[in-house]
Amino acid sequence: MTRMFINQIQPQSSVDEVFRVADKQHRANRQGNMYLLLQLTDRSGSISGMRWNADVRMYESFQKGDYLRIQGAAQLHNGQLQLIVNHLHLADPATLNLEDFDQLDRGKVDRLWGELLTLIETMRSAPAKAIAMAFYNDAEIAAKFRMAPAGVKAHHAHAGGLLEHVVELMQIASLIATRYQHVDRDLLLLGAMLHDIGKLEELLFEDEMSYSDPGQLVGHLVQGVQMLDRQIPVAEAALGVPIDKTFQWRLQHMIVSHHGQLEHGSPRVPQTLEAIVLHAIDDMDAKVNAATEWIRADRNTDTPWTSFNPTIARKFYKPSDNV
Fold it and tell me: Which fold has domain 6-100?
């Protein structure tokens, strides 16, 4: 039987299909009745599922990462498609084609990984290139870098999303550096490459996407600086000379300040030209990606406006030629 993928589900359609559980929550509605809020995925995307009148036994009958056969119906809620689940049952992975649930586009990742190396090779600064290659050639880092999301929900929240975000930023940084002659191009490119590197340790993504305990307690900005400190000796060994401490501080500053504001989690606000530019293009790329995905996910056809996006705190106008 032909599979119905998430991106093929239409409003008001009946659904009887197997999905992977990315997240589950047991909640109470305003009347105190318990229900399940599920995040279900396959290789084409994700969709929320609601199971009303769900007791603890139902909640504990499956775990994140399990495969569930879902029977129910699709409906629109604030412009977003969701499933109302009538029945759910555990599915045996041995009976499934697991490629139907693999969201990593390996062809795209291979292309992006090659583009990352091309951008590194344009660096003229020997210390910048040495640091970049120390990360690129580290087998453990490379394996995670090629599959990590850039976030759990906010933007580029899919397998390989971090690499996509980084390559986009480096491409933008390379263009912007030609306009501002006082900006150190190689430092800006390196900062763009490493600004979110701590997410490799902040996030868990080999099964479901979530946060690690160190990620919750320390956060990817600090973890990124810690990872940089571990790679500096590797870069120095490749160079044969020490890397200037001021260069290291400027790079560390870009990592810890790229959120831009103290209330957004940055221990420092951007205080160098490169840090100012990095914050601006990171914020732009994240918001454009998040807005694009929100517009694509909005299924309302009776209005040119999306529902309210709580992350960016606004609605978006939907162009008639679809994003």
Answer: OB fold (Dihydrolipoamide Acetyltransferase, E2P) (2.40.50)
